Amino acid sequence: MESNRLQKINRLILKELSEIFLLETRKMQGVLISVTQVRVTPDLGIAHAYLSVFPSEKGKELLENINGNIKQIRFDLGKRVGQQLRVVPNLAFYLDDSLDYLENIENLLKDK
Questions:
Q1: For 32, which of 49, 52, 54, 90 could close a Cys bridge (C-beta 3.0–4.6 Å)?
Q2: What's this model's pTM, rounded to 2 decimal places?
Q3: How far apart are CA 28 and CA 26, in angstroms?
Q4: 61-67 long-range CB contacts below 8 Å, 24 or more apart?
Q5: Which residues contact 41 (CB under 8 A, 6 or more apart)?
Q6: pLDDT tens digits for range 67-93
């Protein structure tokens, strides 16, 4: 079970990463990146962020691009949360395909 402090840090990083991606995706037409979940390790060393991408066909390409620019994203995050956190955690991004999975199950149930 996560402590109350970890939950607050998870929500803070989720909120700030969402705003960073919102500002960046405004430049790209037809792409939406949302942060679905953030899990910070208990030592606050690594933040695992799960991203949902629309359209999902561009997911792997965008995830590679995001992982290529991870230092800049961490720097932007540090500017935003520098007053709340002493150390900004390293970031690890993963593709959240739970919506695709739900859509697939829904399609399978409709076919029967």
A1: 54
A2: 0.81
A3: 5
A4: 62/31, 62/33, 63/93, 63/94, 63/95, 66/33, 66/93, 67/93
A5: 47, 48, 89
A6: 898 999 999 999 988 888 888 999 999
